[in-house]
Design a protein that fits this description.
Blueprint (H helix, E strand, L loop, with lengths): L1 E4 L6 H12 L1 E5 L26 E2 L12 H17 L3 E5 L3 H8 L9 H14 L1 H11 L1 H6 L5 H14 L17 E6 L2 H18 L1 H9 L15 H8 L5 H24 L5 E4 L5 H10 L1
Length: 296
């Protein structure tokens, strides 16, 4: 199978569609926020027309109130891939959510969860803030703490939950890279200044396309209470604007900044995986070069 990976705003979705068309394939989504129904503009989800007749799987499957669960995603994605193979077609996995990509491709097992433990840790997060919990994580699992930003409260809480439930380090749940499928990962590389410009242009397009109205409609469906969806890039910032904390311009600027930071983390994640084969995002013969990697 094929995986198209890399940071946001580099054209992964378009390349995946083109490869699927050339190879008689079907696309499987590995963008954690495109799993949510109605989160279209802010996630740059391809429209049906942009999918060009290629079947897409795992788009619009969760309500915005449902917390993300990578173990559930792993089960659904692998089922979709098996179905694609059963039809004699090629699975093309695409997305920039690094853990979701690894959940599909690699031999990963995810520890369970405990709602009581999770609720207690989230209450501590709300009261003390992510930096305080990150300090606790650093004491209990320095390796995991080094890989998780102190500001990422959701991941800090999950790491502490796993440590408490398993009695072992959270870092042990992410073993060495080891494929369960015969896979080729194609990464799209872009110079940092160009990536920053592309992110700015994308955010401007999202605002022009009606992101604020999309968030307002989703807010009526419970977005603000969504443990995962409410933190999505763009959506979190617009929610703060709608609450009167920021102006629309401030929300837009904060979205650009947060997305740039996120793109750097994405790139660092995929760069650590030496199996990824990198191609320039703007190569005029990009699909052909990607096909050459598959043949090699």
């Amino acid at each position: 199978m094929i995986a198209v990976v890399g940071p946001t705003a580099v054209g992964k979705s378009d390349l995946a569609v083109e490869l699927a068309r050339r190879l008689d394939g079907e696309v499987v989504n590995a963008d954690s926020m495109q799993l949510y129904r109605g989160m279209d503009i802010g996630t740059a989800k391809l429209t049906p027309a942009e999918r060009r007749g290629v079947p897409h799987h795992l788009l619009d499957i969760w309500e915005v109130t449902q917390p993300a669960n990578v173990a559930d995603y792993q089960r659904l994605a692998r089922s979709a891939i098996e179905g694609i193979w059963s039809r004699g077609r090629v699975p093309v996995l695409v997305g920039g959510s690094g853990l979701y990509v690894r959940a599909v491709l690699d031999d990963l097992e995810f520890p369970g969860t405990d709602e009581t433990v999770r609720a207690r840790l989230e209450a501590e997060l709300a009261a003390a803030g992510p930096v305080a919990l990150h300090a606790r994580l650093r004491e209990r699992d320095p390796v995991a703490a080094a890989a998780i930003l102190p500001s990422n409260g959701r991941r800090v809480v999950r790491a502490l939950e796993v440590i408490e439930l398993s009695g072992g380090p959270f870092a042990a749940t992410l073993p060495e890279h080891r494929y369960v499928y015969d896979a080729v990962q194609i990464g799209l590389a872009v110079p940092r200044p160009e990536l920053d410009e592309r992110i700015t242009a994308r955010v401007e397009r999202m605002w022009a396309a009606g992101l604020v109205d999309e968030v307002r409609a989703l807010e009526a469906q419970g977005l603000r209470d969504g443990r995962t969806a409410a933190r999505a890039l763009g959506y979190a910032q617009v929610l703060r604007a709608l609450a009167g904390e920021w102006t629309q311009e401030e929300a837009k600027e904060q979205t650009i900044r947060a997305t740039r930071r996120f793109a750097r983390r994405q790139e660092a994640w995929f760069r650590r995986d030496t199996r990824v084969r990198w191609l320039p995002y703007d190569a005029p013969d990009l699909p052909a070069r990607a096909e050459e990697l598959l043949a090699g």
